[in-house]
Every structure is written in C-alpha cells, then in structure tokens.
Amino acid sequence: MLGFNMLFAGFALFLNGISYLVPLNRKMLGLVNLFCAFFMLVNTAIGLGFAPGDIGNYANAAAGFAFALNFLILGVHHLTEATDFTLFGWFSFVMCLSSLAFMTQVIVTRGPWILIYLWAMWAALWGQAFIASGLKSKAVDKLSPYFVIGNSVLSLLAPAFLILFGILL
C-alpha cells in the first residue's frame, strides 16, 4: 500500500505547491486533499488489518495515519478557505520530529536506504512548513512552492512509481 499512498500524496502535494504559483480553486484543492486523506486512511486501516499485533505494522500504520491527518488538515483549510495555516505549521513541527524518529529507527535497524532518504526528505518538508506556517517566516514562505513541488516529485511521485513497478522495496 505504500506505493499507492505515496502516489496519491504526491499528486496532492504537487497541486498544493502549484497553488502557490497559479490560482487554483481552493475548494477543489481542498477536495483533492480530503480524497487523499480518505484514501490513505482506508489503505492504512487495511494494511493494519493484515498483521495485527506486529509492532512494525503499528509503526507503519502510525506513519500512514499521520500522513492522512496532514492531508485532512490541508483539505479542511482549503475547503473552508482559511487563511491562517498556523495549526498546520505546528502539526508540521510534530511531523518533522516524528520523521526524524522514523529515519533514526531505519538507520538503527539498518533498513532500506530509500526509507532513510524518504524520511529525511519528509522531515525537511515538514520542517520547512513549520518555519513558513508555524513561525510565519516570509523568507522561507517565498521558497515554499518550489520546495513543495520538488519534494512531491523527489520524495513521493518518483519513488511511488519505482515501488509500484517493483524496482524499490
């Protein structure tokens, strides 16, 4: 399910990044984010059901549900046309720390190098979101569209296709 979740997250993240540069209908963007959140919730719940009691599966489910919550928060923000993303910024702070914890776990257990790369990229993305939205840094916010679009391709879309094609993991 990881490849599927990453693919849809990549689509949504790409559109979120583009929305900084090109005016997009915020309600439609909200629906895209909510669809992504729903899709990830369902896939994560299904994945959790395959190996109940397996601690590794609980860790994967926690990460999947956290990603779903990310897109749920963004979806509600866009759907309601909210202009204050401070909540998302502070959520991103927690997710940045969580990503670093997951990355450390992969390093310690000598997991696949690709997961180290992915968790590092996601930690950087959420760290940037925290600085831009949580701390309201205008300097960082100017770089946000490019960072979000680049991250959507390099940490979600490209790896998702490689996973779905059986090249990675």
Protein model, in words:
The protein has one domain (2-164): Alpha Horseshoe (Serine Threonine Protein Phosphatase 5, Tetratricopeptide repeat), CATH 1.25.40. It contains six helices and no strands. The chain has helices at 2-21, 26-50, 55-79, 86-108, 113-134, 138-164. The chain is globular. The mean pLDDT is 94.
How many domains make up the coordinates?
A: 1
**What is the CATH T-level topology?**
Serine Threonine Protein Phosphatase 5, Tetratricopeptide repeat
- Please describe the biggest sheet, giving its number of strands, its sense, and whether it closes into a barrel: none
Rg on CA atoms, Å? 15 Å
Strand content: under 5%
Give the name of the CATH architecture.
Answer: Alpha Horseshoe
Distance between the termini: 12 Å
CATH class: Mainly Alpha
Helix/strand order: HHHHHH
The pLDDT mean sits at 94
Secondary structure: helix percent: over 70%
Q: CATH superfamily assignment? A: AmiS/UreI transporter
Shape: globular
The counted number of beta strands is 0
| Chain oligomer state | single chain
The parts where pLDDT drops under 50 for at least 5 residues are none
H/I helix tally = 6
